[in-house]
Amino acid sequence: MTEIISLNYTLIVVMIGAFILGITSGILSSFAVLRQQSLLGDVISHAALPGIAFAFLFFMTKHSLGLMIGAIISGWLGTFLVAMIVRYTTLTRDAAFGIVLSVFFGLGIVVLSYIQKLPSSEKAGLDSFLFGSASTILLSDIITMAIFASIIFIVIILFWKEFKLLSFDRHFMSSMGFPTERLDLMLTWLLVIGIVIGLQMVGVVLMSAMMIAPAAAARQWTSRLGVLVILAGFFGLISGGIGTLFSSYIPHLSTGPMIVISISVIMVFSLFFAPHRGVLWHWYKQREYQASIRANTMLVNMLLFSESATDPYHCHQLSALAAIGRGPAIKAMKELSNKGFVHNPKEDLWGLTPAGFNQAKRLQQSLDHDS
Amino acid sequence: MSIEQIYIIILACLVAGACSLCGVFLILRRLALISDAISHSVLLGIVLAFFLVQDLNSPLLILGATLTGVLTVYLIELLFSSKRLKKDASIGLVFPIFFAISIILINLFAGDIHLDQDAVLLGEIAFTPFRLLSLWGVTLGPISLWTMGIIFLLNCLFIGFFYKELKLTTFDPHLATMLGFFPVGLHYAFMTLVSITAVGAFESVGAILVVSLMIVPASSAYLLVNRLSHMLGLSVFFGILSALLGYALAYFADVSIAGSMAVMTGVIFLGAFIFSPSQGVLVKFFLFQKQRLLFATHMLLIQLLEHEGTQSENTENTISNLVYHMKWKLAFANNVVSHALEQGFINRDNDTLRLTSLGREKAKRVIVMDN
């Protein structure tokens, strides 16, 4: 095992990058998902591509700072155009998203294909922005990433209260006199920066998943914003780590898809197994509820039977009682006898116990009360 | 122009035509980003079907890919209806998983498949002429031309045949249900059609640019006309126009054909966005200016009426007061005054302004909000 995870220098650099990426995108995704802007990440990451390509044409270098600035500008331009389209036309937001992301991506592809034809030695590796590549990450890239990430952390901590209010009740917030539009813009800027940080590692095509999945997974476990943000950051960190590790050891494996698959596994697991919101939890609760309805129905039915007889604890055959079908009736009887509400002196003969009689009376009264 | 180029141009037009036909209903039914999801996830179907049949030209590939497209739509709706995620988050989660899995499969078995990452994103329309269909020893032209031709025909037939049903379920799904139509069935039939089209177009233009051909021409048409039939026609026209212009751009600048087509759809959309007579930015700008002038003229009349016959009349009812008091710019104030003069509402004596009897009437009417 130690041989496999030998801590060489490159791997450490890459892992730090993956951790930064995972945490920032986890935190930002929380706000994006809560504000129903999940797909804005998709738009920004695609819209960043022409920025990267133009920045390369302009600076003729693959140094990450220049490319990131290009990406940030064109990513922001993309969101601006979406806002313009939504404001001036009756097209829906998703239509505006689709238009901007596909056209910007097309433009990026055109410029990239132009760069491919240039006689320059530097151009190799620009493709890694499409699907991400851990192996091309340098220490200088990590430093740039770390600087941008710290800006994001600081702003989020400083404006925590404002962003919280913005995510949950923006109308109330603007009635309190907060500049909601400016805060909105600020959060969008952070989203753009966060996405651009991840582009080199995850790639423009799948970066959008990092702006949804961590928060969507964390949301299943908690309903508190603080916990959500921390948990989403943690999920992002894990998936970043696992994804990078795999793609470093298996040749030809793009990093982006590996990270996305890791976070998706966490997501699917959370969807099924999280307490309170998970599918399994829900299924179990529903069964419990059904069983209690079944038992209660049976109890009230038995009370109706016993009222016609002189002895309230008189036993009846199951076939007479089984208005809800024989199978469910047997299950209901088992549950009731466990609670001591019914007894069966003979095979197939069932009657109320005094405790069951009282319970049935109470149920009937509450039913009458409801109707 | 060589026969190869003509093949490519015809194919580009067929792809654009088929996509922009689907696009009209995608836009109107507010499913724009579903096409993004479908176009990404059909790749998984193509890759898996390829592993099964080991033949890239098999019709099974199209079948498998179409199925994954429909499955994506179903999964998105399932996630959304489980109430655990919002609609946009559901869309943004499902397709990256599918896409990531297929990219990893392609990465791992790169030697076996002639698909590679670039082909997935860029399409390979330029290679069209080299893959010819031959039956019984007769060469019948490129395979993709035949597939795309059939898909285009299928689109025309489907929309022609179900025109009435599509129209009704698009604009009034509730009425359609009441009248005994089956909107859910039609929805999935339409999603199947979108998937088939996406699969066909995928090979030529790649996953992301399919979205531009589906959504953007239809959006441009949406901004310009208000009848479904006109929108269909205009959308196809814009689609084919962008294909032709895109090919020309790609040919002269020696860049990616698919990317250029996407850029051209964007250029046409930009034109529609700016110049549309009903929703264009330009029209809205002029309308806004006109309303601003109208409102300012009314303000001027009220101001003159208020101070008419008072002591301060000579200081209040002057152009310099408009600049000082109303905080108008001098040029704007002059503009408003000359507009009011033109309408015959006021008389001007150097700096001083006086209402005419017509202006007095108008001002009184404006005050009681009856203009």
Short overview:
The complex is a heterodimer of chains A (371) and B (371). Chain A is mostly helical.
Architecture overview:
The complex is a heterodimer of chains A (371) and B (371). Chain A is mainly α and 371 residues long. Chain A has two domains: 9-274, ABC transporter involved in vitamin B12 uptake, BtuC; 280-370, Orthogonal Bundle (Arc Repressor Mutant, subunit A). In chain A, 74% of the residues lie in helices and 2% in strands. Chain A has helices at residues 9-34, 40-59, 64-88, 93-116, 128-131, 139-158, 160-168, 170-175, 180-202, 207-210, 213-219, 225-249, 255-273, 279-308, 318-321, 326-338, 354-370; strands at 316-317, 342-343, 349-352. Chain A has a three-stranded antiparallel β-sheet with strand order 1-3-2. In chain A, strand 2 (342-343) and strand 3 form a beta hairpin. In chain A, helix 1 (9-34) crosses helix 11, helix 2 (40-59) crosses helix 9 (180-202) and helix 11 packs across helix 12. Chain A is elongated, with a radius of gyration of 30 Å. The mean pLDDT of chain A is 86. With 371 residues, chain B is mainly alpha-helical. Chain B has two domains: 3-279, ABC transporter involved in vitamin B12 uptake, BtuC (Orthogonal Bundle); 285-367, Winged helix-like DNA-binding domain superfamily/Winged helix DNA-binding domain (Arc Repressor Mutant, subunit A), CATH 1.10.10. Helices cover 76% and strands 5% of the residues of chain B. Chain B has a two-stranded antiparallel sheet with strand order 1-2. Chain B has a two-stranded antiparallel sheet with strand order 3-4. In chain B, a hairpin with a 2-residue loop joins strand 1 (132-135) and strand 2. The longest helix of chain B has 27 residues, at 281-307. Chain B is elongated and about 100 Å long. The mean pLDDT of chain B is 87. Chains A and B meet through helix 2, helix 3, helix 4, helix 11 and helix 13 of A and helix 2, helix 4, helix 5, helix 10 and helix 11 of B.
